[in-house]
Amino acid sequence: MALITKIREKSGIAAAAIAISLILFLVGGDIFQGRSSFFGSPKDVVGEIGGEKIKNQDFQKKVDEITQQYTQQSGRGPGEQELAMIRDQVWNQYIMDLAYGKEYEALGLAVSPAELVDMVQGTNIHPSVRQQFTNPQTGQFDKGYVIQFLKNFKSLPPAQQQAWVNFEKSLSQDRLRTKYENLLRMSTYTTNVEAQKDYTAQTSKVDARYLYVPFYSVADSTIKVTDSQLEDYLSSHKELFKGQTTRSIEYVTFPIIPSKLDTASFYNDIKRLAKELAIAKNDSAFAMMNSDIKTPYYSTLAEIPEAVKGQLANMTPGGIYGPFKNGLTYSIYKYGGIQKDSLFTVRASHILINAPKDASDSVKAAARKRAEGILAQIKGGASFEAMAQQFGTDGTAQQGGDLGYFKNNGGMVKPFENAVFGFSGTGLLPNIVETDFGYHIVKVTEAKTNTRYKLAAINRTISPSQSTMDEVLRKADAFAVANTTKAAFEASLKKDKSLLMLRGDRIPEGASSFNNLQNARDIVRWAFNDDTKVGDVSEVFQNDNQYIVALVTGSTDKDEVKVDDFREELTARVKSELKAEQIEKKLAGISGTLEQIAQKYGAGALVETATDITLAQGVLSSAGADPTAIGKAFGLKVGKRSKPFKGEGGVFIMETTKSTPAPAIADLTLYKNSAKMMAAQRTSFYINEAIKENAKVVDNRAKFF
């Protein structure tokens, strides 16, 4: 699973080009300005790809171009996260041009004009084109939309025309990447021997009895580990401890919270607004004009907060209600009565038994039978919510199947929507509902209604005054000035118990957040600055609603792995080695049956039995999935016993009592296809990593942004 996660994280670099242009086709922008040669001093080099240095000014120019186009088209500048995404897109395009591009050129790969036309308006439409030219009424791709767009192309604004050109370029790059990956993917082959090995691992079985002494049965306090032992272990297991450049910090937070004076002033303001709202001639306009958070005047039950919803029955037109508190936001409402809507709103829960529309008839039949069985149990008195948690196959299962509120406006698939809105009142639908997703058991928890409520809402968020912010800043600044060393920093923490200190451990250089701190790039950049050393104390940083003063407590370097980088893990491993030696030595002097050995050994020794163990998915009772022990069980002849040996979590003596070889099989196609599918999942990741390694990619962006 860890490998698959890593693949998903990293294999998107090659595909990123199409996402860039897809976004900018909608918002406009000219990302790609071609290749050039980059030279500059090391302090001005944002990275290096394929021997070509990328100067910061050139990189920033491309970022600025996209940012400008984004701002023009969206009407606002990108936020910090969007800006980070733009930088990633520009960097990934450099990789595509300078690293992948050389590979394509060497192999003579290209995309012809006819091929591009086929992807846009031919018979093999690219998925990204399908996505953007989908008919909203039918939900289906409409080639006519594409043709109409291209006919009107010359009348579009220049920025939009350029965006389309870039989008088409990204389609070509994506096709090139696909061709390249397919060439390499088709060069892999699963042999009969490999398929037979997988088949055997999944189907051959053994039964075993074993004595198990877990490491935790030996108290850690009895095992002493020296630094030299840790050094020796690290030296002989370097492949297990890959270095990473990180920083660890301690930081003190000075929260900016409203003072008593701020709170009193806020309440007076709320009271004043309530009085003015009561007599306002245009209450909805007055509420909108005086709200920090705008809410609609006409609201369905789905849009009304729970606290307010509970008071609706007692509200009279023209009345003022509240304030209602939600976090730091207080709301007052003027009730204006009700209105009937053309749409209905309902709240429902469901239990989905998955059966995709392309599933086989036998799969669908089994799913339907299971759904009908669950429905029968609920009709018999079983809890719907408990059954949803136990049997639901989608993301609502853990919430008891709750789908929340929804309207009959196409937000749900048609069969489901028809069934729910065709039901009157609340309760369990008598029959299962079939959709393209499978079979649903449905419960209406709040009856459908087309009532809308007129609520003029003033939502005000209490915030600290400028004088309060200034006072908190003064305290933070005084702390930073008075504690410029590690000793002073930590002494102040011991002296003043009101100070809140937190730790950020092993923060990577490119991190933009850590712990619960978002938008923390300025703190991370400071910690990684060449002039910042371990023991240095920072200036005052503002992070959202708090000021922060940080102390660098540690650093690691990917090129220089030290014991302290992995002290805790190394210590645990060495302790396990020492415990294994101690346990094996004690067991070696004992003879008899496993039960007799366990009795003579004393506390901690367990004798257990495991049946039908497989190499692929073998699990032992107390020891879990211990590969060393399971491998030993398969390696022993029936009736034979092993000597004491170290496993993952303890020491074993293993006896194999039964062996069932894998039955002969004539057709290994299933296992070959499984191996082929696994290889296909890894292909993009491995290709990307190999290309980056070959291009000697050096990414210094974290030092600049």
Automatic annotation (TrEMBL):
It is found in: Cell inner membrane. It is a single-pass type II membrane protein. The keyword Methyltransferase does not apply. PROSITE patterns: PPIC_PPIASE_2. Residues 346-446 form the PpiC domain. Keywords: Cell inner membrane, Cell membrane, Chaperone, Isomerase, Membrane, Rotamase, Transmembrane, Transmembrane helix. Gene3D superfamilies: 3.10.50.40. InterPro entries: PPIase_dom_sf (IPR046357), PPIase_PpiC (IPR000297), PpiD_chaperone (IPR052029), Trigger_fact/SurA_dom_sf (IPR027304). It holds the Pfam family Rotamase_3. Belongs to the PpiD chaperone family. This is Periplasmic chaperone PpiD. It comes from Arcicella aquatica. The lineage of its organism: Bacteria, Pseudomonadati, Bacteroidota, Cytophagia, Cytophagales.
